[in-house]
């Protein structure tokens, strides 16, 4: 296993490699998932942000409920929103993010193969066609695919992708009409 550094940002995204001979195997940290999942979740549930505005408008029409509207908007609503988001962040698809895996990219799509660990339930290997990939974001030498459907929302495509692999992936994504950034 990699040693834990004092730099928290490096620790969050540092891969766990149980086997030195198998350097394609990686498992992103939970904090890396939450950083990337929040914009996806917010994009799907943007309408939840309109509720405090609706309460403020209702309070303007009926001055008696200003105090109640403020309490709901400032205290109760953020707590409910956080609980809903945390239930999403601890769902099965979110938990699968942290399992050690190998992502194999070919012309047909992505093949996710999980490593065998001594403890816990390891999900079955998964095949994802390129047509289910909405976009791919590149973060330095790593990349993550955002999916439109399937058992995952986000799939990290590996850490420390070499330049040749990144160029192949960008060329392939362009040919398929998948946006990337």
**Overall number of domains:** 2
Shape: elongated
Overall structural class, as computed from helix and strand content, comes to alpha+beta
Order of helices and strands: HHHHHEEEEEEHE
Low-confidence stretches: 1-23
Strand content: 15-25%
The biggest beta sheet is recorded as: 4 strands, mixed
Number of distinct beta strands? 7
Biggest β-sheet: strands ordered side by side in the sheet: 6-5-4-7
Structural overview:
The protein is of the alpha+beta class and 181 residues long. It folds into two domains: 41-89, no CATH class; 99-180, PH-domain like, CATH 2.30.29. Helices cover 41% and strands 19% of the residues. The chain has helices spanning 8-13, 30-44, 51-61, 66-89, 92-95, 163-176; strands at residues 101-105, 109-114, 126-129, 133-139, 142-147, 154-158, 179-180. The longest helix has 24 residues, at 66-89. Mean pLDDT is 71; it is low at 1-23.
Brief overview:
This protein has 6 helices and 7 strands; from the N terminus they run αααααββββββαβ. By secondary structure, the protein is an alpha+beta fold.
